[in-house]
Prior knowledge:
There is one protein chain. With about 650 residues, the chain is of the alpha/beta class. It has 20 helices and 27 strands. A 7-stranded mixed beta sheet has the order 14-13-19-18-15-16-17, with helices on both faces. It has a 7-stranded mixed beta barrel with strand order 21-22-23-24-27-26-25. Strand 23 (about 545-550), helix 17 and strand 24 form a beta-alpha-beta unit. Helix 9 crosses helix 11 and helix 19 (about 625-630) packs across helix 20 (about 635-645). The longest helix has 16 residues, at about 75-90. It is globular, with a radius of gyration of 24 Å. It starts with 5 loop residues before the first helix and ends with a helix.
Amino acid sequence: MSTRPLARRIIEEHLVGGRLEAGEEIALRIDQTLTQDATGTLADLQFGALGLETVRSELAVSYVDHNMLQTGPEGADDHRFLRSFAARHGMRFSRPGNGICHQVHLERFSEPGKTLLGADSHTTTCGGAGMLAIGAGGLDVALAMAGRPFSLAMPTVVAVTLTGRLRAWVTAKDVILELLRRVGAGGGVGKVFEFRGEGVATLSVPERATIANMGAELGATTSIFPSDERTRHFLEAQGRGAAYRPLAPDPGARYDEELVIALDALEPLIALPHSPDNVVSVRSVAGTPVQQVVIGSCTNSSYRDLQVAAEMLDGRTVHPDVSMCVAPGSRQAYLMAEAAGAIESFIEAGVRILESACGPCIGMGQSPASGAVSLRSFNRNFQGRSGTPDALVHLASVETCVAAAIAGTIRDPRDLGVAYPSVEAVPARYIVDDRALLAADRSLDVVRGPHVAPLPVFGPLADEPEGKILLVAGDDVSTDEILPAGPRTLPLRSNIPRISEFTFCRVDPTFAQRAREAGGGFIVAGANYGQGSSREHAAIAQRYLGIHAVIAASFARIHAANLVNFGVLPLVLADPADGARFSAGHRIRLERAREALAAGEPELSVLDHTSGTRIPVRHGLTPRQREIVLAGGLLNAARAEDASAADQPG
Length: 650
């Protein structure tokens, strides 16, 4: 009798290579792909380098939702390139203003049992609709668009059993904050979190999507919910009932780990600065003055979220000390909110309405005042991500955010003394208008503006890479710290030489210059290096500046894969305490690096010329990954593979 978790069932259905044993490398067939404008230009350039005329996945969608502040021609040039590239190569194109990729994809393209690979870490959102939805680097997505399988380590599956029902003013956001409090950022690396139990049936798809979205902050491969009557209701309301497929784990499914969350025992929670897992109860910090409140992001910007916020604000005014903004997650959510009178309620209450885009979540506008407390319904609060280095960004539910906007201080929404808003989780019918989702048009030519630079060309791994240690960093270095988002850098996403100048600019403004002058070198860091966004620019910029390897206690999954994809060795300390033996400025060499990798040896030796010591490190690379690094990156390896196949007779 089969006892498979749901995640394993979908993996088995899509398996094209490897063994289903935890930690073993497997290859999956990918049904759908998504890119967005911050990652899509590079992914499209990489797809174009493969020489294919059209995408080979079932569905490929190119979204524009990140770089919306067109303060110069670069953003508009990128959008024109993305539109023309999508049309020419058989992709759907979501126009600027149509919404955030994850919200729109959930609404219009999610399909239970399908695989989705997205060039954005929060692709996991569609796990709320029973998809196996995984975030990856743009190069991995480009190859999936080309019909190639996606390779990853077979994850373990963690059952998260939900019991009971959420009480009034306690939300899906509080569920994932509770999970973050228990597991911690990075505690989900190599794992899929699969939700089950009686409590699942009490959550709508938008609520499930909120939980699945922030599973990315755990470092998880993905999160997934079953496809049940709630899923059917959501898809039928979207006019896509034919996409419904009931899916559940096998009876008596066996899991690698299990957690239990009693929904009726939860209370409103809040993540304090500067990490999503720095979670406490709202009441424990009640009374803290708040200067800004923002509702939106791919986590909490659905029609339901907007309607709850509007009803809470109806007849009230935002506190005079608070600046409040709302960004609907999609054009559909905006139209639904407008039809229900929510937009009018927001305006009357003194709320600023932003366009349907990522916006403040990635520091693209609405940066808080210096030192301000900003309460946001977002998924990340890394220091400086908002665009204000000393801002104190907190994460909480829509309900807690609105309570703070009304009171002017952090406040448990249960203490408002009013009834919980009567809001339908999923309406009988959503407004469906797909005119902003453009179809492919092979007759169009690709328009490549002057700011879209050619891809850098990288050579193979050196026999014994050598150079200085350019930076020694601590734990939990995020991709926002490696290469920030925001209005200075997002317009440069299609130009690697220019954007590389901003590498580690918030940590050490001299880093890029020092790396160039030194001819490259090494980075040493602590645990969970590269957490956060999937942006592969953080990896390719390091390679462009000549970084041979990053030596760390541990790595975030996506960033480690991105480093490999661009030929940078992610090396793990054999003993985490050895990190203290490295010093910035020391000259080191990876002894016999190429020879050892080619021979499949698991360890390398780092010779510190300055101190005269040798330090052992491990690479943990699969045979496929070793070939990629030896070739100097995944694109080089893919081209070599294609050339080899073309040379075969018959």
